Amino acid sequence: MTLTNEPDATDPMTARAIAADLATGRRSAAEVAATTLQRVAHWEPKVAAFSHFDPELLKAQAEALDAAPVRGPLAGVTVAVKDVIATRDMPTEHNTARYQGSRPGVDAACVDTLRAAGAMIMGKTVTTEFASTNRGGKTRNPIDPTRTPGGSSSGSAAAVACGMAAIGLGTQTGGSTIRPASFNGIWGMKPTWGVISREGLKQYSMTCDTLGLYARSADDLGLLCDVFDLDPAPQPARLEGLRIGLCRTPMWDRTEPPMRRALEEAADALRLAGAEVIEVELPSLYAGIAEAHSVILAREGRSSFLNEVRNTPGIHDEYIAIVGNARGITPEDARHAYTLADRCRAAFDEIMGGFDAIMTPSACGEAPVGLERTGDAAMNSMWTLLQVPVVSVPGLTGPNGMPLGISFVARRYADRTALAVAKLAGEVLARDEVELA
Questions:
Q1: At residue 431, does pLDDT exceed 80?
Q2: What is the average pLDDT across 382-398?
Q3: Predicted TM-score (pTM) of this structure
Q4: Which structural domains are found in the chain, ordered by start?
Q5: Keyword Transferase: yes or no (predicted)?
């Protein structure tokens, strides 16, 4: 197992670098757009991250921004948007036949907020169909094109990983933001459920659907926390003295040996930096949480996809099975799943009273070879159902040279705490001088 450095802090196309340069006049939005076009020309034929990209639209946004008398905190920052998120000036097609060429004419709330901050919405990125399946698409992992970039937010993760976009918007209902962050070696954040509006996002599960964020640095995610006005929370400045729980989750048997070693090595590195890393044994209550997540998605998917099945001849059998309740989930099954989820959330609030953050795997292992499937979300679904903030930290790699992300979790609405601890951990994991077994 080896360590890799974080993306170069001098990269001129990170969100913070772009925003700082435009604020001081060192660069114009037009110059940012020109560099972006060069990167897209180089990487897009290899990665295929975009479902829609219009160079002229990007240039027009840059021209308007350069002429604007007032610029926001994300002025000139390029944003790639997952194609289940509505955009007023681009198609929103959900990677499904029924919506080919569909233009909603309005922005999702998150996109609207980013535009108000001065961001340039550069294109729509590949998603799995309705962001609800692990059937793969055309997007390839920039690190190894024979491997999946993960899903369902495959395009946004890949676009950020190879520097075509500074920021990527994804979604997560199971593991669709955090797993691709791990597979592509970038920073990924699943905020607390509901702290960023999901108006304008294709719905799968009202209980779990969450906007996801990608960047190449923790500082860039911090900018997004400010723009989306996330709650104030403690932001520790050093690892020394922090209490961090090491949680293997009830799905630990799904992890692969390289990820198991990575988690232990990350824990050792944090201990060397002065953090107190403590094993967390979750109560037996959590043994059923993965099944509860599965039942809730199946139940809520029935109503979410009913209209699609009724109006789309030839729709994939997966959706027919969901709407037709092929699993035979009863109302009592659903009530039990919701009750268990509520109890687990309350219990986790109590557990977190003894910790600053929890560390846990971001994925089961390295990105699998092949594009047919997007990988296993077993390490993510519990945290999604708990509705807590999760930040995936890059830095470690496996035996095939592929990234292995480590997630840091905080209690609900402590998103800034999760990010602050993750940033400190990332600085340790990215140090060349750190020697791990």
A1: no
A2: 98
A3: 0.96
A4: 2-282+347-429 (3.90.1300.10)
A5: yes
